Amino acid sequence: MPYDPSNPLQDRITDIGPKYFREFFPPVIEKNFGKWVYHEILEPGVLVHVAESGDEIYTVRVGGARLMSVELLREMAEIADKYCGGYLRFTTRNNIEFLVSDKAKVKPLVDDLKSRKFDGGSYKFPVGGTGSGITNIVHTQGWAHCHTPAIDASGVVKAVMDSLFDEFGSMRMPAPVRVSLACCLNMCGAVHCSDIAILGIHRKPPMIDGEWIDKLCELPLAIAACPTAAIKPAKTASGLKALEVNAERCMFCGNCYTMCAAMPLADEVGSGIAILVGGKLSNRISKPKFSKVVIPFIPNEPPRWPSTVDAVKKIVDVYAKDARKYERLGDWAERIGWERFFEKTEIPFTHHLIDDYRFAYTTWRQSTQFKF
Amino acid sequence: MGKHNTPMLDELEKGPWPSFVSDIKQQADKGKHILKEAPNDLLGIMEMSYVDKVTHWKHGGIVGVFGYGGGIIGRYCDQPQMFPGVAHFHTVRVNQPSSKYYTSDYLRKLCDLWERHGSGLTNMHGSTGDIVFLGTTTDHLEPLFYELTHDLNQDLGGSGSNLRTPECCLGMSRCQFACYDTEETCHQMTNAYQEELHRPAFPYKFKFKFDGCPNGCVASIARSDMSVIGTWRDDIRIDQAAVKAYVGGELKPNAGAHSSRDWGKFDIQAEVINRCPTECMCYGDGKLEINNAECVRCMHCLNVMPRALRIGEDRGASVLFGAKAPILEGAQMSTLTVPFMKMEAPFDELKELVEKVWDWWMEEGKNRERLGELIQRKSMQEFLRVIELDPDPRMVDEPRSNPYIFWKEEEVEGGWTRDIDAYRKKHLR
Predict the structure, then answer these.
(1) Rounded to an integer, what distance in angstroms lies between the CA atom of residue A202 and that of residue A8?
(2) Residues A89, B99: C-beta atoms closer than 8 Å
(3) For A128-177, what is each residue's pLDDT tens digit?
(4) Looking at residue B61, what is its pLDDT?
(5) B325-337 confidence digits (pLDDT tens)
(6) Taking every annotated instance into account, which residue ranges of this chain make up the domain 4Fe-4S ferredoxin-type (chain B) (predicted)?
(7) How far is A230 from A253, CA to CA, in rounded Å?
């Protein structure tokens, strides 16, 4: 029975959950499930995993813009049919993996992937993103689809990845470098534990749409949403119920705008980018750690955000040259000391970089150990 | 040349990295999607944002499918006259299969469905792991959902104040480090909590993520209210011959992960033994020894010598709670709560645990208060009482340094009721 608009609840099916993942396993994965012994990265972007049985599976990893068209997905399906028996997967970082059990097919697959380009000239399927290199930037929606962003997401990522392209296709960093972007502090992309985080921030307090605010919003919810208690009830000149913001208390988190559409805060010059560095998720050698703000603000510079691109590239270059093998960016900064980090990267240290929020004291230095 | 003049976006067609602009243009030119003008108008409105440096999307309205409170995010642009193709541009979150394997056949079915009912644009995948269908109109939602469930045997993901779509690493399907079956756990936990996923009843969002080992490829410790991270309790298995092969240079260290740069000859002392955070390893006379009781399972030695070292055999997971992004009280990582739990279907122990957590959070949590913030506000002690766990030094980095202990009356001999008159008989005013 096809869908009947006059009776939308007929034969309704709900709460069936996702497809069972094992339906999509290549046979060699199904056969060797839980029996993998080791893996090796044969070249950037190409891995082999070997099972107890001696079976092998080859993976060719390619980067992708997270915003993908159905046309591009169909092309992936066609490639998977041609080389991979129809199997592929996606990674957490928006890469695509083509899975091959026959080694002889790896080179033709890689050559084919590298040969495909968009009409505009960029690669459709750049091979890489493995080991101690710089893999794809995970990111959020930005100006393509979100109501709270301070910056675009896809465009900044495209510009930064163009400049890091050689690192995507090689493995010459001291350790993996994870770059992430969130277009506002809500961080639906959770970038706060990345080696390098590109974060959209606002710098102007919300405006109040006085004529509409009481019609559009639950005023007490907007008041309660403010973490610094900067919002209080007010009346407009014409006597309508409204709100006012104590601008000096505002930390520009945008939580009020999330609760109330009549309090927009994005702005052409007020909104822009902060750069955070030195976070990690893995427990390898050192514990997971947060990224730290090292550049408080870079203006929004569409279409290619040159200042942001340069800042990221500079940090990557200094780190790559100075860090020891296995040292993540944050481990390196801690070993040399943050004072040295700022010196080496030539980033100015300003008062904005000293914490003054909830856990501020835990980040100040209570020691006479420092470097001149 | 598209429908709109987009000189700024066109700059993003240059350079080697895949251009989303070129891809949207190819969909606009060749795609068979039903909402014909959507890709062109998306480019148009994005170009406008590139000029204005401010978004042109408005707050979402309440849209969805009957009976569900999540899975669809309403989205409208603020220039509907200029860009009618994206005037209504709702997002549909479709629950991805565990660890995102697909067959080409199924991928095409998803494409067909989305051509019939939307813009032809997607995110593969969204931040939480869903297949994201980007942009459709309200009238397409019910037919899309009908075909999704009837023809593709597939459900929507989560949004709003509910359980968000759980996510996992690829686990045992292709990784030798997986300490439990992350994919099966993710699948079964998702199915067990369909009610919580589709019908928002929580104070705010709640996320599960399942990492197979402490390398943490799915970032659960940073971004999930309940982080389940694989670990083991017994000894790392050592193949001494393979260790020697690494030392001798016959095997490539790090599985080749550093091979684009000349780091010199592999030095087991400098690169493995001296890097061990607990100094629990030594190498001499061609033999590697690990004092496993002191190992904290950081994974470094296993990552460097995957053919010589393997995870132990008494495997399970650590369960941590409370991670979140900065909104509102600051970013938090998850706190170690259950050091070790066996992870076997049907995962009753894990379910029992998370249900206790939810009961408490739904009772005590304020509107838009994440679990991690509630634990901070009410205390770790109260959290442990609620989930009926005994305190364990593994739960803290160090004991408290301030001595302000909130003693309970029942912990103090004789209680707190005292007689001031009796006191005054001995102690004159």
Answers:
(1) 43
(2) yes
(3) 999 999 999 999 999 999 999 999 999 999 999 999 999 999 999 999 99
(4) 77
(5) 988 888 999 999 9
(6) 286-314
(7) 12
Enumerate the residues of chain B whose CB falls inside 8 A of the CB of residue A284: 214-215, 298-300, 303
- Domain B237-310: state its class: alpha beta
- Is the pLDDT score of A103 beyond 80? yes
Chain B: give the shortest CA distance to residue A324, in Å.
Answer: 10
Please report the pLDDT score of residue A354 as a whole number.
97
**What DSSP character marks residue A158?**
H
Paired sense of beta strands A56-62 and A46-51, if any: antiparallel
SS3 B341: strand
Contact A255 B327 (CB under 8 A): yes
The average pLDDT across A235-240 equals: 93
**Model pLDDT, residue B1:** 54
Q: How far is B248 from chain A (nearest CA, A)?
A: 18
Q: In this complex, do B27 and A69 lie within 8 Å of one another by their Cβ atoms?
A: yes
Nearest to A283 among B30, B102, B298 (CB): B298
| CA–CA gap between residue B66 and residue B135 (Å, rounded) | 19
For domain B7-150, the CATH architecture is 2-Layer Sandwich (3.30)
**Nearest-Cα residue of chain A relative to residue B29:** A71
To the nearest whole Å, the CA of B249 is away from the closest chain A CA by 15
Site of tokens 């170690």: B336
Q: How many CB pairs under 8 A join A and B?
A: 429
Mean pLDDT, chain A, integer: 96
CA distance B89 to chain A (A): 8
B231 by DSSP, 3-state: which?
strand
Answer whether 0.95 is exceeded by the pTM: yes
**Chain A residues within 8 A of B296 when measuring between CB atoms:** 283
CATH 3.30.70.2500 domain extents, chain B: 7-150
What is residue A2's predicted lDDT score, i.e. its pLDDT? Answer: 86
**Omega before A303 within 30 of 0, i.e. cis:** yes
- Closest to A38 (Cβ–Cβ): which among B104, B216, B307? B307
Q: Please give the Cα distance from A126 to A119 (Å, whole number).
A: 15
Nearest-CA distance A54 → chain B (Å): 13
Write down the pLDDT at residue B60: 78
Among residues A139, A117, A138, which one has the least CA distance to residue A129? A138
Q: Where in chain B is the domain with CATH 3.30.413.10?
A: 167-232+316-410
Q: What is the pLDDT of residue A359?
A: 85
Using the beta-carbon criterion (under 8 Å), do A23 and B97 form an inter-chain contact? yes
CATH fold group of domain B167-232+316-410 = Sulfite Reductase Hemoprotein; domain 1 (3.30.413)
Extract the residue ranges of chain B whose pLDDT is less than 50. Answer: none
Which residues from chain B sit within 8 angstroms of residue A190, using beta carbons?
127, 219, 222-223, 325
Distance from CA of B187 to the nearest CA of A (A): 7
The boundaries of every CATH 3.30.70.20 domain in chain B are 237-310
What is the model's pLDDT at position B297?
98
HSE of B266, CA atoms in CB hemisphere, 13 A: 23
CA distance B179 to B187: 17
Is A193 within 8 Å of B298 when comparing Cβ atoms? Answer: no
For B428, residues 6+ apart whose C-beta sits below 8 A from its C-beta are none
Chain A residues closer than 8 Å to B169 by CB: 92
Mean pLDDT lowest among A108-112, A357-361, B20-24, B263-267: A357-361
